[in-house]
Design a protein that fits this description.
This protein has 327 residues and is α/β, with parallel strands linked by helices. The protein has a domain at 2-175 and 201-232 and 291-307: 3-Layer(aba) Sandwich (Rossmann fold). It is 44% helix and 16% strand. The chain has helices at residues 11-22, 38-42, 56-62, 84-104, 140-157, 178-187, 205-218, 234-245, 255-271, 280-286, 296-302, 309-323, and strands at residues 2-6, 26-31, 46-49, 67-70, 109-113, 162-166, 169-171, 193-195, 199-204, 224-226, 231-233, 251-253, 290-291. It has a seven-stranded parallel sheet, with helices on both faces. Strands 7, 9, 11 and 13 form a four-stranded mixed sheet that branches. Helix 1 links the parallel strand 1 (2-6) and strand 2 (26-31). Helix 1 packs across helix 7 (205-218), helix 4 (84-104) runs parallel beside helix 5 and helix 9 packs antiparallel against helix 10.
């Protein structure tokens, strides 16, 4: 089969590209700079220069493909207001561009990468695919992905053969997100505190890539699948990291402290540029929020089998420790 893939130079997209090639499929990878995507060319992907924000750059390479994986996305927590337009252009406008072309070209099936963040803070409840949230969001990322999610559902309503997958927190070797930053800070002993109630569904990137592949092969067009991993609080996750590495645990604090700091930083951030880790938005997301989802449907219909956090965290932490020359 021939698949068109956006986000191939990203974290999940890179793993998915390797999996697709391993399974013998042809991959047409949309990249902004082919000269910097040599690893994709090395595994046999066809590289085409383009951008999801430039609709016509995708028309020719998408033509004749059997399926589309739209994985590309903007993920920045704590971005300054002037930089948030990029998030809207990529997550919202880019998604609309990809799906409009998919419909115009008659592509037989597509898989769109949404996120549990469209549900915002689930207040400790592990929600399923029937849950709908329509309130304010904690971050611009959450908001833009929620808007893109609505666009995908509207295309489905109008007959587009699209499957929507909803990961939770994704981790693993090669990550470039704030998740990796947190783990590195922990390993270096520079993570002073973590909020007690903050919790996520932790999924290793290899399991997420496999779930995308299975959604294309087995997923029912028009359906949503939560492909989140096992649920753990941030404190519990770092406890697992402590048992693996022996590194000191950071202080667990009441989430109310970070909410208080968020209020202060929202004022300070208007005047002074703040590092993302100290932005009001970042502190707000960390202040006891829970992004939780029930993956029972994906397990039953896709055969989704996420590994335990202990197993996934072990390989991830040793990978980072080798890079940091700690082992």
């Amino acid at each position: 089969m021939k698949y068109f893939l956006t986000g191939a130079t990203g974290f999940v997209g890179g793993y998915l590209a390797k999996l697709l090639r391993k399974e013998g499929h042809e991959v047409v990878a949309l990249v902004r700079n082919p000269d910097k995507a040599g690893d994709l060319a090395a595994i046999g992907c066809t590289l085409v220069k383009g951008d999801v924000t430039e609709k016509e750059s995708m028309r020719a390479p998408m033509t004749g493909c059997d399926g589309v994986f739209h994985v590309a996305g903007w993920y920045k927590i704590g971005a300054r207001r002037k930089n948030r337009k990029e998030g809207t252009r990529i997550n919202v406008d880019g998604t609309r561009n990809v799906l409009e072309l998919m419909r115009a070209l008659g592509i037989k099936k597509g898989v769109y990468t949404s996120t549990l963040a469209v549900n915002s803070d689930t207040k400790g409840v592990q929600v399923d695919e029937r849950y709908h949230y329509d309130g304010p969001h904690l971050s611009h990322y959450d908001y833009t992905k929620a808007e893109a999610h609505k666009i995908a559902l509207e295309f489905i309503k109008n007959g587009l053969p699209l499957v929507v997958v909803m990961p939770g927190l994704i981790y693993g070797p090669g990550d470039t997100s704030s998740v990796r930053t947190t783990l590195i800070q922990y390993l270096k002993g520079k993570l002073p505190m973590v909020p007690r109630k903050t919790a996520y569904c932790w999924a290793h990137v290899e399991d997420i890539a496999q779930a995308h592949y299975d959604a294309m092969q087995k997923g029912v067009a028009g359906e949503k699948y939560i492909i989140a991993g096992p649920q753990h609080s941030l404190v519990d996750a770092l406890g697992i990291a402590h048992r693996i590495t022996g590194k000191k645990m950071p202080l667990a604090v009441n989430p109310g402290l970070k909410r208080f700091l968020s209020g202060i930083m929202s004022v300070v951030g208007v005047i002074f540029p703040l590092p993302p880790d100290y932005s009001a938005e970042n502190l707000r997301v960390l202040a006891g929020a829970t992004y939780l989802g029930d993956n029972s449907k994906a397990k039953a219909e896709l055969g989704y089998a996420p590994r335990s956090l202990k197993d996934g965290m072990s390989t991830t932490l040793w990978h980072e420790m080798r890079l940091l020359k700690m082992v």
